[in-house]
Amino acid sequence: MKKIIITSLLFLFATALIAQKDLMGITWNINFPTNNDYLNKTSFAGGKIEYRHFLHEKNMSVGLALDWSTYEQHIPRQTLEKPDGNGAVTSDFIAQVYQVPFTATFHYYFEERKRFQPYLGIALGAQYLEQDLYYNVYVNEENNWGFVARPEFGFIAKTHSGWGLVLGANYSYATNKTDLINSNSFKNWGVNIGIMFGQ
Amino acid sequence: MAFLSCRKYPDTGSLSNSFVVQTSKEPGANFGSYKTYYISDTIALITTNPNDSLWTDADAKQLVSTVKAAMDARGYTLVPNNHLHPDLGLGLTAIKDLNIGVVYPGYWWGYWGGCYWGYCGYPPYYGYGAVYSIPTGTIILDMIDLKNASANTQLSVLWSSVMSGGLGNTNNDIQLGIEAINQAFDQSPYVQTQ
Questions:
Q1: How far is CA A45 from CA A29, A40, A170, in A?
Q2: How far is residue B21's CA from residue B163's CA, in Å, rounded to a whole number?
Q3: CA A37 – CA B77 distance, rounded (Å)
Q4: Radius of gyration of the CA atoms of chain A, in A
Q5: How far apart are CA A170 and CA A149, in angstroms?
Q6: Three-class HEC string of B37-84
């Protein structure tokens, strides 16, 4: 994972020499987990900081993005078996997932019309995931890293003064493996809305 | 990496006041090879008061009766006292007004006195590596192998349940305790004999 990030950074610095435009973005992220019956409650506690560096063709950018989201859900009283079959616990639970993907991004921009510029992109990188189960005074914690791939699309609505509104949607697939809930991946849909500014 | 610790923690106030029922069993235990059991009508009590060591009132008897009913339903036969060589010894411990940090199972055995079911000097043995943090209001049920105690020279705990809740906090906590004991058996269908 580190190699991907370092390679992306080097690529970014190299392209800075021929670049003509930079954008910084801050957005509010809303995510919809699609991981089965364990977690299905929408997360409104998320955000993104990103940096896009335009290539000299001007309709493509490379960049870096840091996202974070907290999912939280009350799970009604139920019995969870330990994987070895020699134990069980019955309780209601609060499941919490903290998701932090670090990604390198590539975006392609369609022709700008009436200050609207649609784009398509892909974000690739590493995702930190923490899955916690709270019950009574106890907490079971597990955290891990995985590879994340996130296709995304959206548009930037530009103003005359160098900043714009951004609205995007994405699907995120990550390979985080969590034994606690016997899961091999973490998947979610997401939308993000915010501002982009730059020159 | 500091960013990774910058996260919100949940409000656990929405969690119910029902007991958390944890059960563990000795991985190789054959519960069908035991037929009889004994359980005292009193409950070992651990509190901040060193003079509190036994819980003997009607509430305690209700909890013991719940264990007896569950054991009978699973095909085991109660013997009237522990001198009649029961195959299994069951022990109930209650912890009130006291939070106990991280402990290994068996910590509470000291409160049962020196000789457990007449087997003086045999140490408790749990075949599973459970570690517990025990909040106040916890009931612990241990099932001990007396049948093979002499051969093993230890008191192997075949099955145990740590039930954590609000014992001593509310009026209906005895009912919650009874439900917790029944839940411990429900989630352990392997505890049965012919």
A1: 7, 14, 16
A2: 5
A3: 42
A4: 19
A5: 10
A6: EEECCCEEEECCCCCCCEECCHHHHHHHHHHHHHHHHCCCEECCCHHH
Spell out the domain ranges in chain B.
20-186
The model's pLDDT over B34-78, given as tens digits with 9 standing for 90+, comes to 999 999 888 888 877 767 677 888 888 999 999 999 999 999 999
Let me know: does A176 contact A142? Beta carbons within 8 Å: no
Is the ipTM of this structure higher than 0.85?
no
In chain A, the domains with their CATH numbers are 2-198 (2.40.160.20)
On whether the pTM is more than 0.90, the answer is: no
**Token pair listed for B98:** 């006291």
Q: What is the pLDDT of residues A110-150, one digit of tens each?
A: 988 888 999 999 999 999 999 888 887 777 888 999 999 99
Give the β-pairing of B36-39 and B88-95: parallel
Q: What CATH number should be reported for the domain whose range is B20-186?
A: 3.30.160.670
Number of Cβ pairs < 8 A linking chain A and chain B = 74
Which residues in chain A have their CB less than 8 angstroms from residue B12's CB?
94, 134
Helical (H) or strand (E) element with B149: helix B149-152
Contacts of B7 in chain A (CB under 8 A): 68, 70, 98, 130
Rounded Cα gap, residues A11 and A22, in angstroms: 15
Packing angle, helices B58-73 and B173-186, rounded to 10: 20
Whether A187 and A34 have beta carbons less than 8 Å apart is answered as yes
* pLDDT per position as a tens digit, B111-155: 555 566 667 667 777 777 666 777 778 899 999 999 998 888 888
User: Does A96 reach chain B within 8 Å, measured CB to CB?
Assistant: yes
Over residues A79-105, mean pLDDT = 89
Share of chain A above pLDDT 90, in %: 53
